[in-house]
Amino acid sequence: MNFLHNYNPEPIAFSIGFLDIYWYGVIIAITVIVGLLLIIRFAKKRNIDVNHIYNLLFILLVSSLVGGRIGHIIGEWDYYVNNLNELVKIWHGGLAIQGIMIMDFLVVYIYGRIKKINFLAFTDLIVVALMARQLL
Fold first, then answer.
1. Would you write out the chain's pLDDT as a tens digit for each of its 136 residues?
2. The pTM is what?
């Protein structure tokens, strides 16, 4: 029998004290780093200020958590309407990719409007990182 058919890896990659680091978190971190490196490379080629990339990355990291959580809460509203104390407990699980994508779209659009950056030029850079994320 093939090894991969029976292999079931542990979900926790490693622990630091009481903090467990899961494999999916490691993979997401790697994709963010690879995506950032690609975006920076292409931004330099297109003469886009790299500081905008760093600023937007920080904003997107925070807004993705908020948007993902809001999306999850909307999707599971029947549960959360009766358990309001669970709304902010992100460590209990629950981020929706749809909420992340909608929030990120809005943040990139608003940031581009405020900083007077062409929205389509900005999204051209970000699409490259999204493609890299799909490959990993």
1. 566 667 677 888 999 998 888 888 888 888 888 888 888 988 888 888 899 888 988 898 899 889 999 999 999 999 989 988 888 888 777 888 889 889 988 998 999 999 998 888 888 877 777 666 555 4
2. 0.75
Query: Rounded CA gap, 23 and 11, in Å?
Result: 6
Contact between 117 and 52 under an 8 Å Cβ cutoff? The reply is yes
Strand intervals (E) in 4-129: 12-16, 19-22
Q: How many Å apart are CA 61 and CA 133, to the nearest integer?
A: 15
Distances in Å between the Cα of 84 and the Cα atoms of 27, 64, 78, 87, 88 are 31, 21, 11, 5, 9
Cβ contacts of residue 123 below 8 Å, gap of 6+? 108
